[in-house]
Amino acid sequence: MFLAHNQPDQKQQTLKASLMEVTPLILTYNEAANIRRSLEQLTWAKRIVVIDSGSTDETLEILSTYPQVEVFTRSFDTHANQWNYGLDKTDSEWVLSLDADYALSDELIDEIRSLCSETSIDGFFIRFKYCVFGKPLRGTLLPPRQALFRREKATYIDDGHTQLLEVKGASSFLNAPIYHDDRKPLSRWLWAQDRYMGLEVKKLLATPEQKLGLADRIRRTKILAPFVILIYCLILKGGILDGWAGWYYTFQRVLAEILLSIHLIQAENGSKNE
């Protein structure tokens, strides 16, 4: 895949060719507000695989304007199944998995170009910069995601409202970030969070408490998590220094935790009354 050591006049050609051997894989569902920004940072790709869940907005129209994009439609059941279906549709050694509201930084593209073809690494974790109204924040709750990996070494499994990628082999980190820049309407965000938190509750209640991490144990209290997130986002992550963008992100995350608490209360009391 990536580049070997060549003479200076050949190196640029090798760099470009190596990057084209990575297939970006994207999931979409009504992402007209985001998908163009994502694709504009993927113009280097020879082929882009998109798994669409039945978009009814302008997403498919936008995708059709990019000749290297190949769209496959699959009705959504779980995130893991969507991603694994997408992996089956790729044929390159390396895959770059992206949500439709991710945009690669220029520095990340250069860093991927510079990776050695003889690397023993099978997957790379990439850090995020969360954006609000296009402005990158100082901090985020998003952990690094293993987004660049060898296709044959990888499979997805469901994990609450989202998914986990399992890569059989050695992993490492890249330094440059992906921008997470979701500009869909607030109503869509609220709809998604309500759905996500319902799935998270099922995971929390199905997992023995001794197997939960600290964050999930705090969430199980139903009271502490919103206050912890408020302090964490504003103070520990520096959101208060980001102005209204920082407050907006903090309010989003606090509201998400409140929704989770409401779902927990409903689920626990519902089971008692059955």
List its salient traits.
alpha/beta; seven-stranded mixed beta sheet; 23% strand; 13 strands; Spore Coat Polysaccharide Biosynthesis Protein SpsA, Chain A; 274 residues; four-stranded mixed beta sheet; 9 helices
Summarize the structure.
The protein is α/β, with parallel strands linked by helices and 274 residues long. The chain is built from 9 helices and 13 strands.
What's the CATH first level of the largest domain? Alpha Beta
From the alpha carbons, calculate the radius of gyration and give it in angstroms.
20 Å
Task: Tally the beta strands.
Answer: 13
- CATH evolutionary superfamily of the largest domain: Spore Coat Polysaccharide Biosynthesis Protein SpsA, Chain A
Alpha-carbon distance between the termini? 57 Å
Which architecture of the largest domain would the CATH scheme give at its second level? Alpha-Beta Complex
Mean pLDDT: 89
SSE order, as H and E?
A: HEHEHEHEEHEEEEEEEEHHHH
Domain tally: 2
Q: Per the principal axes of the C-alpha atoms, what is the gross shape? A: globular
The helical percent reads: 40-55%
Main sheet characteristics: 7 strands, mixed
CATH overall fold name of the largest domain: Spore Coat Polysaccharide Biosynthesis Protein SpsA, Chain A
Strand order of the largest sheet: 3-2-1-4-9-6-12
Structural class: alpha/beta
Unreliable segments of 5+ consecutive residues: 1-17
- Count of discrete alpha- or pi-helical segments spanning 4 or more residues: 9
